[in-house]
Design goal:
14 helices; 16 strands
Length: about 475
């Protein structure tokens, strides 16, 4: 359907968000680009929020939105859930401190809970973010195998550090062959002296097989999001074959489940595919809105970080101990933070009761969005697994990898997103939807009405083709 060209669609957005605009101008005096993480920015400027409650956010202009960003998927219970507040309060009162700086009981209790859903995890270590978790997983694999090179899949994101900032969303013109992608740097300052990751094609069986066969002698590990970006699932045969080949070649298979953990299923992508990776990284949901990361997996791999193996960097020259270089040193003052683990346990306990309701809401919302698009004559589809999905503006089939996403109409999807923002739905334009236990009938009705209004506006020519 042709969409008539009219005045710039940002005018209404600008009128609605004057406070955000003024705040961002002030913020730029103190913060690069006015933000503390590049992902928080979008053009022409991000909406600045003032308050969260349940499934809703309020901006500094006083407008309320149904929140579908949910802290990029971290807030599986919504904003300010009573069980998380209670858990945090009880931990502080009962323990008398927010930080021991020593081992404590919650470290083991939380580990047992995680392992009950992720049987591939025999031991684990805590970090302060999903990014730190993937960094540690790579180091563990390198030390365990004695090899250095890493492979990742095109279109997959594993954190904002230079070793992995390759081929996440590159121009197709620079990306090389579909079956043998080129490593394309996605940031300044990512020169890794010829040790850039090998890039594997996602959901491309023959390409993946050939590249692993050609490079396995150099490879310590392969990292994969079992569901790309949380919403493009892998084929079952692809995941089975990847596991088969990494075992055959002695390459560590790392599932990055920071997005998919407790979302694609309570047991993440490995529950969905019934595949046991060697290492798993988790984050987001398991912190209940607080910063956390986990690396877990085979005992023999995790044990290369055990202090029982020798001295550490603070015990130089310790008599009777092996050199510090014999042990993979891993530390962090806030690793296994008791307040965060209490919040995480509370989150998981609520999800154990409410996860099926979250899935039911997600399915109803997806069906409703697609039906509204169909009635408006727009090629709107949804794509996802569990409590995450994305809205795809595309005439053809659902995407199976990054290159398929490049063929979708992101211009119209972005216009739809700004129309929805003006109607009271929040997610960063072009981003995925993450559903929480706080979303219910009120939010469903509000959301579908906002979609009807947005589609009518676009259909009537109030957008730009």
């Amino acid at each position: 359907m042709a969409i008539k060209k009219v005045e710039h669609p940002m005018i209404e957005f600008g009128l609605q968000t004057k406070g955000s605009y003024e705040h961002m101008q002030e913020a730029k005096k103190y913060l690069p680009g006015g933000v503390t993480a590049n992902i928080k920015h979008f053009a022409p400027y991000p909406v600045v929020m003032d308050k969260g409650k349940g499934a809703w956010l309020k901006d500094i202009d006083g407008h309320w939105y149904v929140d579908y960003l949910m802290g990029y998927g971290s807030l599986a219970l919504g904003h300010g859930h009573s069980k998380i507040k209670e858990a945090v309060y009880d931990q502080l009162v009962d323990d008398g401190t927010c930080l021991f700086g020593t081992p404590h009981k919650l470290e083991t209790s939380f580990a047992k809970k995680i392992m009950s859903y992720y049987p591939s995890i025999e031991k684990l270590r805590y970090t302060n973010s999903g990014t730190e978790a993937t960094q540690l997983a790579i180091r563990l694999a390198q030390v365990f195998t004695g090899k250095k090179r890493i492979a990742k899949f095109e279109g997959h994101y594993h954190g904002g550090y230079k070793e992995m900032l390759y081929s996440i969303n590159p121009p197709v013109s620079e990306a090389g062959l579909e079956e043998a992608p080129s490593p394309v740097p996605e940031s300044a300052g990512v020169d890794v002296d010829g040790q850039e990751p090998y890039i594997l094609p996602f959901n491309h069986l023959k390409g993946m097989e050939k590249l692993l066969k050609d490079h396995h002698k150099e490879l310590a590990a392969v990292l994969i999001e079992p569901v790309q970006s949380g919403f493009i699932p892998a084929d079952q045969v692809f995941m089975d074959r990847l596991r088969e080949l990494t075992k055959k070649y002695g390459v560590i298979l790392i599932y990055d489940e920071v997005k998919t953990g407790f979302r694609s299923a309570l047991g993440g992508g490995q529950e969905k595919y019934q595949v046991k990776p060697d290492l798993t990284t988790l984050g987001k949901v398991i912190g209940g809105g607080f910063p956390i990361g986990v690396v877990g997996g085979r005992s023999d791999i995790l044990d290369v970080s055990s202090p029982d193996r020798g001295a550490d960097v603070f015990e130089a020259g310790a008599q009777g101990k092996a050199s510090a270089k014999e042990v993979l040193f891993h530390s962090g003052t806030y690793n296994g933070h008791p307040t965060i683990l209490a919040a995480g346990l509370a989150t998981i306990s609520v999800l154990e009761e409410d996860y099926n309701n979250v899935l039911s809401f997600t399915n109803e919302l997806r069906k409703g969005i697609e039906e509204i698009g169909r009635k408006a004559g727009f090629p709107i589809k949804t794509c996802g697994v569990g409590s995450i999905f994305n809205v795809i503006w595309n005439q053809d089939t659902l995407p199976r990898h990054y290159r398929d996403l490049q063929k979708t109409n992101t211009k119209m999807r972005k216009e739809l997103d700004f129309k929805l923002l003006q109607s009271g739905l929040y997610t960063k334009p072009l981003n995925r939807y993450s559903i929480s236990a706080a979303h219910g009938e009120e939010e469903l009705e509000f959301t579908l009405k906002a979609y009807e209004k947005a589609c009518e506006s676009l259909k009537g020519g109030a957008g730009v083709s």
